[in-house]
Amino acid sequence: MIGVGWPLVVALAVLVAIAVAASVVGRVGTSRMTVVAAVRAVVQLGAVSLVILAVVRSWWSTVAFTLLMAAVATWTSARRMTRHRSGLAAGVAILAGAVPVLAVVLASGTVPPTRIAVVPITGIVVGGAMSATSLAGRRALDGLTSRRGEYEAALSLGFGERDAAMLVVRPSGAEALVPALDQTRTVGLVTLPGAFVGVLLGGGDPVAAGAAQVLVLLGLLAAETIAVVVTVELVARGVVRRI
User: Fold this and answer.
1) How many CA atoms lie within 13 A of 223 on its CB side?
2) How far is residue 71 CA from its own chain's centroid?
3) Cα separation of 32 and 145, whole Å?
4) Whether 127 contacts 225, CB under 8 Å
5) Number of other residues whose CB lies within 10 A of the CB of residue 29
6) Could you give the count of Cα atoms lying within 13 Å of 119 in the half-sphere of its Cβ?
């Protein structure tokens, strides 16, 4: 298990310093955001660790907490995609991706339907769907802006608004899935993701760790694919727009 103490504090501080230094040297301009993100991560995870102890005591509080996860994910994706209130439709894409995956893993018994198991698996799947939605939405909206001429040309040829927009935004869906596809293809060869390492650190055997990670990766791939498809459709239909 990871030891909680001064060595951990020092390690975290050094890692943040490295990220900030790299940002400064490369003039990326993310130094302040890096520090803020790191501080928020520490505070939020510390608070969540305490909250979860209370949350998992009843199903009512567990369900309420998972709904809070979905709401925060929706707000985050909405802000990433657009400043327009239509960005809140991101919640449709996130839930469309997360709900079927959670239903499968819980109904099949691969993840025990217990309160302590539902909270983390929901967080993993909703988080993945959120990231995919944000990326797909941003790229689709950017595509409609930068390739406006192609969109208008398709309209002039008789295409409907949705079909004309889809010609422009559909490639953004495939691009948004590249991180998930690469992570799935290279797992065990390039990366040993969190679920695998977590099971090992928790005392599980490598086979159980591998099974947990495969379940997580394929679940994320399914959730993110659905979320991307729905997001692209929402942008093409004008439900989500830039202004």
Assistant:
1) 28
2) 13
3) 29
4) no
5) 9
6) 19
Q: What is the pLDDT of residues 58-96, one digit of tens each?
A: 888 888 889 999 999 999 999 988 888 888 999 999 999
State the distance between the two ends of the chain, measured CA to CA, in whole angstroms.
Answer: 48
Alpha carbon of 97 to those of 16, 38, 132, 226, 238: distances in Å? 32, 28, 10, 5, 20
Share of the chain above pLDDT 70, in %: 89
Mean pLDDT for 10-26 is 89
Q: So what's the pLDDT on residue 202? A: 61
Spatial separation of the C-alpha atoms in residues 170 and 240, rounded to whole Å: 15
Report the half-sphere exposure of 95 (CA within 13 A, side-chain side): 14
| Contact indicator for 106, 215 with CB cutoff of 8 Å | no
What percent of the chain is modeled with pLDDT above 90?
27
pLDDT digits (tens, 9 = 90+) for 205-230: 666 667 777 888 888 899 999 999 99
- With residues binned 3-state (H G I as helix, E B as strand, rest as coil), the percentages for the chain, rounded to 5, are 80, 0, 20
Question: Is 196 a residue whose pLDDT tops 70?
Answer: no
Answer CATH for 57-236 from 1.10.10, 1.20.1640, 3.40.50, 1.10.357? 1.20.1640
> Which amino acid does the sequence have at 183?
Q
- State whether residue 187 is helix, strand or coil: strand
Tell me the C-alpha distance between 120 and 195, whole Å: 11
Give strand pairing partners of 42: none
Residue 187, φ and ψ in degrees, nearest 5 = -60, 135
Where in the chain are the domains?
A: 1-55, 57-236
CA 233 from chain centre, in angstroms, equals 18
